[in-house]
Amino acid sequence: MTQHDNDTAWPDHKPTALLVLADGTVLEGFGLGAEGHAVGEVCFNTAMTGYEEILTDPSYAGQLITFTFPHIGNVGTNEEDIETVNMAATPGARGVILRTAITDPSNYRATKHLDAWLKARGIIGLSGIDTRALTALIRSKGMPNAVIAHARNGEFDLHGMKEEAREWPGLEGMDLVPMVTSGQRFTWDETPWLWDKGFGRQDKPEFNVVAIDYGIKRNILRLLAGVGCKVTVVPATTSSEDILAMKPDGVFLSNGPGDPAATGKYAVPVIRDVIKSGTPTFGICLGHQMLGLAVGAKTKKMHQGHHGANHPVKDETTGKVEITSMNHGFAVDEATLPKGATQTHISLFDGSNCGIQLDGKPVFSVQYHPEASPGPRDSHYLFQRFADLMRQKKSA
Ligand SMILES: NC(=O)CC[C@H](N)C(=O)O
User: Which residues are catalytic (predicted)?
Assistant: First the structure.
């Protein structure tokens, strides 16, 4: 890594992109994607595939992603693998940091080169970064705030970038859900993609599910539709009266960006009412964290977070281990789980909480991403668990 000690000591060549960390470290690279600059928290993602799904996951709002896998771009991009539902909103990640230049696409599903796709979505990128060193730095010091900038003419306001990186308040305490949640209610019936058929439709739904959209991913909606749900997606600030008036068979609490404690200020009272009503409830990631808050547990910021598609998790209710997709920088502090909330899943990487269930209630949630996209399908069974709870409730 190259570090400039003062703002004027430029080498003869001009880099076309920079990553400036809050501590003043400057990493030089080659610009790609959109020109401009963005501020966010740098996290590393260890997935070897699925960069398009990762970059369009709304949970990454406010973050800059460094991929540990060096060959990004080889399957190009397409219109089908986008995870953002609310296309009018800010796209997921604000920036992307790569080791090598984007690999040219070679895949039958590719419709666009990643570089052009990033440009079209306003995502700023840089390559030529020693991503192993950056990842090692995150592992030892935690996820830094940083400014990423791309300017073809090589002209940067380095002083301003350092100041912006230093002064950005960071994700702790930040509610980013308003940037990504849908502005209005809509229904969803598309089922998962099959290799020989593409997407399907759920035309005989067994359950009506209301999904509270804190930044929901498409594949969650598809898997819900796949287990028999007609899903009505509602904005994050929808009241519990409005939700319960729809007489849902189940309520889903989605993933999303930012600090659960900040979003929880308005989401937790709604979640409490939903639990009290006895409606089967399933939460994923931010939804899991806010369910934890709703029962009185606390959440905490993690040191390096979990972002990848290779995280082992143990389901303590069955003893089975599943390899999961993860994307979170906060976690439920298991030590604060109250009586009545049982830990059901744990991370086999660091023992952190990965799932809870409320005793005697049809309510459960997981910290990781059973919908994958990208990632292994080991955890798809959780959607079936939710359907089973709704079926039991309906026939009770
Ligand atoms: N994927 C998510 O829902 C992420 C939840 C939360 N924003 C976190 O970083 O922990």
Answer: 285, 369, 371
